[in-house]
Each structure stands twice: as C-alpha cells, then as structure tokens.
C-alpha cells in the first residue's frame, strides 16, 4: 500500500511538472471587487460556471481572472456565509472587463453548496433531502479536537463511549448503532470496518473542510448500508496561499473527585496551502500531534479514559490541465497508540487488565473531473483506497495469549456522469448515473505465545459492485428526485463455517421538496437499505468483562438485514422583530426486517467459567425506530447567534430480545439508546476581537446492561476477593439491566484575537469542557469490572488554553 501511494504521488508530480503551463493566451481578462454592506469581502470564491477556472478575492476584496475563454461566460461569486451571485459577461481577446459584485449575507447558511444529497453539487435549500452541514467554525467553538466530538452538535446524532479500557466510541444516528451509518471520505466509501472501531477519534478537525450529514436513507445512492444515514467527511482543499499554527494544552479532571487524577492533553496543529500564480496548480498540507494521559475517575488504578498518542499528516493537491478539466489527489497517514487498564508503564501481559491498540492508517484518492460541453455536463472518474494495520492486546490476568494483529484494505473505483437538460418531461432536470466497485479485505490473527501457533480469527473479503441512476427535476414550486441503485455483494470468509453469502439488492429512493412559500418548505422521502451478513467494526473490539474476553461472532445462519426508511419535514425561515430564524421539524420512521441482534452464548455449555460471547442473529418479527428531530437556528444580531437541537425517539424490537444469560434478561428496547437527547450552542461576539461561546449537550436516561460477578462462581481465595469486592461496592453483583440517569454537559470558550497586518491574526483562547463535571458515579472497580458498563460523558471537567496564528 505504501508503494502504491508513493508511486501515485510521484506520477502526479511528474504530470504536473511536465505539463506545459502556457496555453494559447487570449489576454481576455476580468478584474473587479466584491462588497457586502459597503465593505469589501476577502477570501470568497470567484469562478466561471461549467469550467474549472476560479480564484478568490484577496485580503482587500479584489480579484482577477486572466486568459479566459472567448465568449459569454457566467461568473459566480460564492462563499460560506454569503448568498451566491452570478453575472453574464462576454469576454473578448486582448480586453479586460471590470465587474463590481455586491453580495448579501447568508448567515443561516441556507445556500451552502452540498454534495451528499444526490451525488451532485446542490444548493442546500434546494436539496430534496435535509442536509446538515457542520462547519469548521462550529467545531472550533465547541472545542472539538476530532470529528467524533463535533458530530454531537447535529440533530439526531450522538457519540458515545463503550469501553473504559480502550475508549472505543461509536456514532448513533436516529437511534441506530454505528454500523447502520455510512461514513464517507470525500464521498468515497473507504472508511473501512476496521477503521470504524476507533476511526472517528483519529480524524482531527484541522483535516476537515466540513462534514455533511443526511439522516435516514436519503443518501442511498452512495450505498445501501446508509440505513440510519450518511456522514460525508470532506477534507480541505487549497484555495489560496495560507498558513496556520495552533497549539492547545488541556488539563483533564481539574477539581475532580477525591482519588481521581489530573492528566495533560497537548495538541499541535499546522496547516499550509499554496496556489500557483495561474491558479492551475495548488497544494494543501496538514498535520496534528497529540499526546493525552490516562484518566482514572475513582482512584482504583484502572483507566476510565485511555492514554493516547496521535500523529496525523495529510495533503490535498490539484492540477487543471485545461479550463474544463481537473486532476485531484489527496492522501493521509494516521498513526495512533492507545492504552487503558492498569499498570500502564508495564507490558500489556504484565498488567491485571490491559487493552492496547497501535494503528497505522494510510489512505488516499485520485480523481479526474471533465466538463464535456457548455451545458455543464460533467464526467468524474475516481479511485480511492485505505489500508489499516493494527496491533492489539485485549487481555486480563497477565494473559500472554491476548495479542493480535489485524490488517484491512478497502478500495473503491468508479465513474459518474452528470447530464443536464433544459427541459425533460415537465421541468429542467439533471440525470446522474454511474458505476462503482468497493472491495474490503480483512485479516485478523491472534498471535501465539509460549510456542503456540498463530490463530486466524477472520479472513474475509467483501466485494460490492453497484450501479446507480438518479433523475432530479427542479421547478419554482417542486423539486423531485428519483433514484435507483443495484448492489451485488459477495462475501468470502475462509474461517466461516457457513456458505459464503452473496446476493443482489435493489435500493430505490424518492425525495420530494414542495415550496409552500419561498420561506416555508416541505420535504418527504423514502429509501430502502440493507446490511450484508459480514464482519462489522464492533466485532473487532473485544470486551473485558469480569477479567474475561468477550467477543462477537456471526451466527452461521445470519441473513441479510433490510430496511424501509420514511422521512417528512417542515423547514421555515422567518424574521421576527429584526431577528432571523431557521426552524426544522423532521420526522423519521425506519422499519427493520430481519434486524441483527446479539444473543448471549456460553463458550462451553459444560463449563461456565470459560466465559461467554455475543452471537449476532436475526431478531424475530423485526424492529423499528421512530421519532422527530427539532432544530432552531437564530440570529438575534450581528453579535449573538444560537443553535438548538433536540430529538425524541423510540427504538424497539417487535418481540423481546435476550441481552444476557438469565431467562428474565430480555427487553424490547434497544440497549444504550436514550429516548431524548439534544444540544445547544450560543455564540456572542461583543467586539471585533472578542468571541465567547457556550454549548450544552444533553443525554436522557437509557438501558445499559451490566454483567457483574457472583461469589458462587469461585472457590477459595478467589471467592474471598470477589466477596470483598461486592461487599465494598467495587462491582455490582450479578446480571442487571440498569436505567441510567440523564446528563447535561456544559462547555465554555473565550477567545481574543489581534490583527497583525491585513492578513495575519494571532488569537488566544481559553475554555472549560464539562464545566459542572457531569460524569458517571457508579463505575466498576478493579480487575473484575465490566469495562463495557460505561454510559456517561467520556471527558471530565477539562481546562484548555492555547493560541492560533496565521491568516485565519
């Protein structure tokens, strides 16, 4: 994989360096400036529709486009926070035209361009499905270090921690667990199952231009496994010559409970981009270094938050061979070490409990865009890949046999064509069609010890060949989108006892937008989805319960799971007394057929002391999730803005499912799924230099299983130790379904910046996360704890200080 990436980069450099930069100079130029409210606007994009030609305004709000094609061109000005404006201009050889643009603010970001709605660039207000766009500014204001933290400030989304020993997190969307959500990198499905276990914490926010979220199955054209929805992580691209440096130091658990410890969390981010004078070639690089100590909440010597070391490096580059074509190349390399349990300064097998992971993730993509005619029809060809190498240890009681080695390679190759028509049947339309193939190879080995042979636990290849077509119509009152995708998957697992699953799935989707008024919009949608009976990311995490390894295995009879998702929403934009508001009410209902569920199973029916595992089976009679997402964005003035989001939902099986060993350990409720959760952000800008932000995150009560010990399962000295632990309240006895309390986490951030010239800014900031130190108060203690019994906020009260420097 390393050789492939290196060769690709070398070839790209050769192409860029060898390509003649000069072309038939027309000396047809456009110069001008962009203003809003009487002031010049810096760093907004000025482009020519239907071409790859573009630039940005400089620090004074001026721009120039040189050597343009001859004839009538459409010049577009766009930027985050501003409404897009176009103007027709007829260029002539050896002539310079001057244009002055006046644009309006779009502080509610209604006209933000998104790509996840229908595999095509679309104005967010005109998209047939609701698309939430998470900006870098929101991630900065909420002190989000990685994307896992930033996603919690979007309706219907909740990030949770599932293990005290390794910090395993997952994203739940609309009440469904992690594997139901499709994670895309730059619209490509290469975020593999192996990367998905810890991947959301591995991607730093300085790598991301924005994140687009589509809830429900509205983005089914990207793949049928987008049952709960899709998160599209769009990495940064070079737009101008720029640089920035950010350094942050955090103190974890300031003023914590007696017996708990305080640890440091240090981070350094560096970003830079450069663009050639002719705007045909550009590059962007980013890097992050992070070092975080382990946090022990109750003084028992075992971690509740793991220690972590992270190094991330990446780049994004482009070259435009002509005014109609563009080659893009991006790559990244993420190295991470994490360790939890106790005796962290010892080798893992010398500790009472240890989970240690070392990840090395390398990935990249190469794409080619070509505008084929004057109707803005476009061809896109792409190839992308991600390789993950993971060394692991999941073990207790100084077990030398708990080491593992896992490797995964995911690749995707495809082609897409966008065809525009001035009129088709009853309105102007766009047709999108294409083909893609995704291959995911996973190899998981348990390493031998003391002369034992290595044991292969999984050797699986999943290949999915998909074709898709979509027809979009846009009119003054109605936008309609009809899409159809067909996937044929084939799963080959040399370690499986069952036949290799394969099958074809037809995935339709329908989206309708009806504009009741220019400011009141109604949307309704339907999409089908599926999950193939393969190994999922959570299967690669091994719980340590009562000092016993607990794995997840697929049943030999596991069948494909399918879904039918329905959504309906109202979106109203209104002003009230000089204030501006954007309100969204979005209802959802997803019916799951043959849904996957976990059953408790003993490793040895005749010897309970050998422990148990979870077996993934198809639940009887199906399941459903339903609810409503509410969101309100408000601009009270140029100084004050707020955003509120809340979700009410129900997630239930139609018949009770077993979650434990006992006969009475059954429930219809989905585990770890609250019926209410939400967030709020408040931003105050009292002066041009001072910024203040306050955010809240609420999680309601939920059912969490707990597997405790029973002294009857032990003898002698071991029995006495277990009885002492139970009597002292270190562990909860027996098997219980606990109803958790609710949590409200508050964060506060203050920043002040100094302008050092026209382009350079120095900003200092200080913040507190989890101001009121809302954390779980009933963690298990010691070696025999149930490490999966964790449900509260993952981070205690933390103080952050730092600075940012650059042309921000």
UniProtKB/TrEMBL annotation:
GO molecular function: siderophore uptake transmembrane transporter activity
Protein's UniProt keywords contain Transport: yes
GO (cellular component) term, any one: cell outer membrane
Chief location bin: membrane
Membrane topology reported for the UniProt record: Multi-pass membrane protein
Keyword Nuclease carried by entry: no
Keywords of this entry: Cell outer membrane, Membrane, Signal, TonB box, Transmembrane, Transmembrane beta strand, Transport
SUPFAM superfamilies listed in its UniProt record: Carboxypeptidase regulatory domain-like (SSF49464), Porins (SSF56935)
Name used for this protein in its record: TonB-dependent receptor
Species this chain originates from: Proteiniphilum saccharofermentans
């Amino acid at each position: 994989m390393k050789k492939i990436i290196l060769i690709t980069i070398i070839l790209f450099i050769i192409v860029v360096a060898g390509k003649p930069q000069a072309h038939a100079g027309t000396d047809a130029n456009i110069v001008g400036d962009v203003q809003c409210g009487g002031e010049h606007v810096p760093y907004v994009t000025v482009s020519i529709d239907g071409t790859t030609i573009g630039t940005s305004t400089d620090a004074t709000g001026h721009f120039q486009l040189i050597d343009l094609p001859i004839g009538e061109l459409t010049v577009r000005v766009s930027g985050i926070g501003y409404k897009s404006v176009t103007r027709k201009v007829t260029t002539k050889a050896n002539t310079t035209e001057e244009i002055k643009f006046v644009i309006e603010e779009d502080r509610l970001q209604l006209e933000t361009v998104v790509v996840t709605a229908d595999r095509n660039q679309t104005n967010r207000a005109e998209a047939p499905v609701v698309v939430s766009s998470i900006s870098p500014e929101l991630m900065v204001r909420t002190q989000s270090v990685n994307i896992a933290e930033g996603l919690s400030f979007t309706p219907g989304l909740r990030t949770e921690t599932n293990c005290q020993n390794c910090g395993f997190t997952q994203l739940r969307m609309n009440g469904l667990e992690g594997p139901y959500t499709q994670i895309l990198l730059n619209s490509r499905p290469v975020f593999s199952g192996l990367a998905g276990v810890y991947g959301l914490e591995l991607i730093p926010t300085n790598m991301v231009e924005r994140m687009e979220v589509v809830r429900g199955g509205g983005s089914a054209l990207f793949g049928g496994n987008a049952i709960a929805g899709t998160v599209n992580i769009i990495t940064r691209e070079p737009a101008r010559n720029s640089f920035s440096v950010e350094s942050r130091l955090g103190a974890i658990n300031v003023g914590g409970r007696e017996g708990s410890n305080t640890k440091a969390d240090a981070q350094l981010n560096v970003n830079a981009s450069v663009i050639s004078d002719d705007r045909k070639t550009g590059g962007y690089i980013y890097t992050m270094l992070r070092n975080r100590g382990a946090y022990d909440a109750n003084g028992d010597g075992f971690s509740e938050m793991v220690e972590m070391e992270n190094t991330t490096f990446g780049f994004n580059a482009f070259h435009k061979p002509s005014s109609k074509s563009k080659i893009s190349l991006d790559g990244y390399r993420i190295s991470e070490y994490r360790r939890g349990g106790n005796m962290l300064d010892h080798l893992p097998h010398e500790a009472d409990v240890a989970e240690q992971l070392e990840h090395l993730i390398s990935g990249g993509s190469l794409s080619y865009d070509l505008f084929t005619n004057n109707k803005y029809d476009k061809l896109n060809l792409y190839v992308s890949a991600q390789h993950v190498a993971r060394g692991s240890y999941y073990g207790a009681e100084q077990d030398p046999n708990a080491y593992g080695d896992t490797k995964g390679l995911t690749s995707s190759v495809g082609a897409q064509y966008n065809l525009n028509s001035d009129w088709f049947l009853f309105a102007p339309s766009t047709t999108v069609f294409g083909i893609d193939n995704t291959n995911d190879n996973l190899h998981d080995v348990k390493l031998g010890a003391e002369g034992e042979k290595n044991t292969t636990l999984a050797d699986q290849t999943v290949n999915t060949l998909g074709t898709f077509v979509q027809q979009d119509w846009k009119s003054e009152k109605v936008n309609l989108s009809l899409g159809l995708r067909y996937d044929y998957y084939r799963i080959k697992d040399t370690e499986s006892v069952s036949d290799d699953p394969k099958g074809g799935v037809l995935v339709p989707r329908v989206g309708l937008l009806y504009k009741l008024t220019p400011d009141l919009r109604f949307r309704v949608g339907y999409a089908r989805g599926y999950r193939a009976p393969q190994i999922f990311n959570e299967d690669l995490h091994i719980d340590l319960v009562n000092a016993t390894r607990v794995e997840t295995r697929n049943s030999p009879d596991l069948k494909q799971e399918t879904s039918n998702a329905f959504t309906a929403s109202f979106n109203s934009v209104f002003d009230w007394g000089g204030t501006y508001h954007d309100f969204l009410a979005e209802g959802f209902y997803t019916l799951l057929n043959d849904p996957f569920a976990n059953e408790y199973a003993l490793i040895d029916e005749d010897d309970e002391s050998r422990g148990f595992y979870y077996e993934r089976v198809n639940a009887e009679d199906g399941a459903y999730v339903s609810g409503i997402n509410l969101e309100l964005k408000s601009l009270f003035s140029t100084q004050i803005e707020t955003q509120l989001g809340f979700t009410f939902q129900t997630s239930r099986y139609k018949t009770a499912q077993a979650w434990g060993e006992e006969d009475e350990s059954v429930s219809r409720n989905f585990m770890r799924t609250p019926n209410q959760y939400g967030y709020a952000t408040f931003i105050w800008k009292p002066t041009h230099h001072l910024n203040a932000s306050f955010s809240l995150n609420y999680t309601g009560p939920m059912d969490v299983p707990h597997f405790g010990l029973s002294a009857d399962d032990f003898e002698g000295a071991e029995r006495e130790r277990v009885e002492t632990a139970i009597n002292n309240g270190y562990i909860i006895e027996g098997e219980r379904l606990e109803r958790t309390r609710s949590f409200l986490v508050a964060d506060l951030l203050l920043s002040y910046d100094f302008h050092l010239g026209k382009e350079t800014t120095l900003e200092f900031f200080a913040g507190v996360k989890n101001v009121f130190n809302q954390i779980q108060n009933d963690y298990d203690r010691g070696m025999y704890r149930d490490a999966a019994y964790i449900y509260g906020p993952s981070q205690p009260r933390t103080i952050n200080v730092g600075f940012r420097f650059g042309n921000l």
